[in-house]
């Protein structure tokens, strides 16, 4: 197995794809699937996965930005207050987090 292929497999595993999901993709890239109907079915499936990945990326970006802002607040707070006072900012973080939720967000 070449390095690029292994990297793709490991990257897909890290973001939550099952081995069967990865096989579905590799079957197409390896040329094992040539039937037009099956290719179109997989294309539709891949497009749905792409949409979910983009949505996750957006969520990750929002959370990362919020957490980065919170880290800055914590650093500033620690300089002026004992560490035990940091947790007073939990409500402020929650409010900041909720302000960035999209209307299409569906809590689990």
What does this structure look like?
The chain is built from four helices and no strands. The protein is mainly alpha-helical and 108 residues long. It has a domain at 54-108. The longest helix has 45 residues, at 36-80.
Write the layout of secondary structure elements.
Blueprint: H1 3-14, H2 19-29, H3 36-80, H4 90-99
Concise synopsis of the structure shown:
The protein has a domain of 55 residues. It contains four helices and no strands.
Tertiary shape: elongated
Question: What structural category arises from helix and sheet content?
Answer: mainly alpha
Question: Main beta sheet, described?
Answer: none
The fraction of residues assigned to DSSP E strands is under 5%
Kindly report the average pLDDT value. 84
Count of individual helical segments = 4
Radius of gyration: 21 Å
Question: What's the β-strand tally?
Answer: 0
Distance between the termini: 39 Å
Poorly predicted ranges (pLDDT <50, ≥5 residues)? Answer: none
* Helical content (DSSP H or I, runs of 4+): over 70%
Order of helices and strands: HHHH
């Amino acid at each position: 197995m070449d390095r690029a292929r292994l990297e793709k497999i490991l990257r897909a595993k890290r973001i939550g794809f099952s081995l069967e999901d990865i096989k579905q993709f590799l079957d197409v890239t390896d040329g094992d699937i040539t039937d037009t109907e099956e290719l179109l079915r997989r294309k539709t499936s891949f497009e749905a996965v792409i949409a979910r990945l983009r949505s996750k990326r957006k969520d990750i970006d929002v959370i990362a930005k919020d957490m980065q802002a919170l880290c800055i607040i914590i650093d500033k707070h620690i300089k002026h207050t004992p560490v035990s006072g940091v947790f007073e900012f939990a409500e402020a973080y929650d409010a900041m987090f909720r302000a960035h939720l999209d209307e299409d967000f569906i809590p689990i």
